[in-house]
TrEMBL record:
GO molecular function ontology, one term from the record: methyltransferase activity
InterPro entries: Diverse_substrate_MTase, Methyltransf_11, SAM-dependent_MTases_sf
Region (Disordered) residue spans: 1-43
Segments forming domain Methyltransferase type: 87-176
Membrane-crossing segments per the record: none
Family that this chain belongs to: Belongs to the methyltransferase superfamily.
Biological processes per GO annotation: methylation
Protein name per the record: Class I SAM-dependent methyltransferase
EC number: 2.1.1.-
């Protein structure tokens, strides 16, 4: 399917609807800091843009998603992905896009970042991608069966992105949001989270997990539609999965998060040297099991 044949997306030239200055839907999982709105917006913009300088690192080391996630999305949406027209927003390097295509969906990707878009084209050839963001989608009304945001909804402004999602979805279509979050009930993951908090300070410390004090479901579901004109009817589930990888892949994964990307090489290397020692003490064979709770939220347009 070409971009011109998919819901009037426009050509795959990178010159269509350009990313807003804040790159609101850049891929990643990092919550905003608690600050005044102007400072928060500047921080969001800086962190969102940071992924474009590390797109190859992101693509090579970030975790994927389990088949059970897509089974859950289909269950909550009440329809299959096979044959559906799916718009994957904040597609990043195409991790979720490739899996959606493998499920038989007809996928169009939307991504604001130049670096991430270039990596996407290398990773997922043949899938159309247009430049744009979730706050102003370059698509016609009622043209999609699913609108998906993998690790990217939090970069949007729900006051704008929720109405945009409902505009683009067909009646009965579904908005699916999901995040890989750290399973903080796993002792070594909780210990690492505490080290990151100490290194960065509590307000900035989340590299991505939303497990937090209220639990993964209790935190992100409350925040997902904050500021939106209304809270849509929605359901959520948590899907646990894990992967076994070398310590160095794990370290490359966590330092592909924006909190490290904006820190700079010197500060990141200092953290890595200490963290590698902690991990090798816990995993002397040099392999770790990353455990994730994927929070998925599905809202359906009436």
């Amino acid at each position: 399917m070409t971009p011109s044949s998919h819901p009037d997306a426009g050509p795959d030239t990178g010159t269509g609807t350009e990313a807003k200055a804040q790159a609101d839907t850049g891929a990643g999982t990092e919550p905003e800091t608690q600050a005044d709105p102007d400072t928060r917006n500047r921080t969001r913009a800086t962190r969102a843009h940071s992924f474009n300088t590390a797109a190859a690192q992101y693509a090579a080391n970030r975790p994927s998603y389990p088949p059970a996630l897509f089974d859950t999305i289909e269950e909550l949406a009440g329809r299959p992905l096979t044959g559906a027209r799916v718009v994957d927003v904040g597609a990043g390097t195409g991790i979720a896009t490739a899996l959606l295509r493998a499920r038989g969906a007809h996928v169009l990707a939307v991504e604001p970042g130049e670096g991430m878009t270039a990596e996407f084209r290398r990773a997922v050839p043949g899938v159309p991608i247009v430049r744009g963001d979730g706050n102003a989608l370059p698509l016609l009304d009622a043209c999609a069966d699913f609108l998906t945001y993998a690790q990217s909804w939090h970069w949007t402004d729900p006051a704008r992105s929720l109405p945009e999602a409902l505009r683009v979805l067909r009646p009965g279509g579904s908005l699916a949001l999901w995040w890989n979050t750290d399973a903080l009930d796993v002792p070594w993951i909780a210990a690492q989270a505490r080290r990151i908090e100490r290194y960065f300070g509590d307000e900035q410390a989340s590299k991505g997990g939303t497990g937090g004090k209220g639990g993964v479901a209790g935190s992100r579901t409350e925040l997902a539609f904050e500021g939106a004109p209304h809270i849509p009817d929605h359901a959520h589930r948590v899907v646990r999965w894990s992967r076994h990888i070398p310590v160095d892949t794990h370290l490359a994964n966590i330092t592909s998060h924006s909190i490290f990307l904006v820190l700079g090489e010197e500060g990141t290397e200092a953290f890595l040297a200490e963290e590698r020692a902690h991990l090798l003490e816990a995993f002397p064979d040099g392999r770790v099991e990353e455990v994730y709770d994927v929070l998925v939220i599905v809202a359906t347009r009436s």
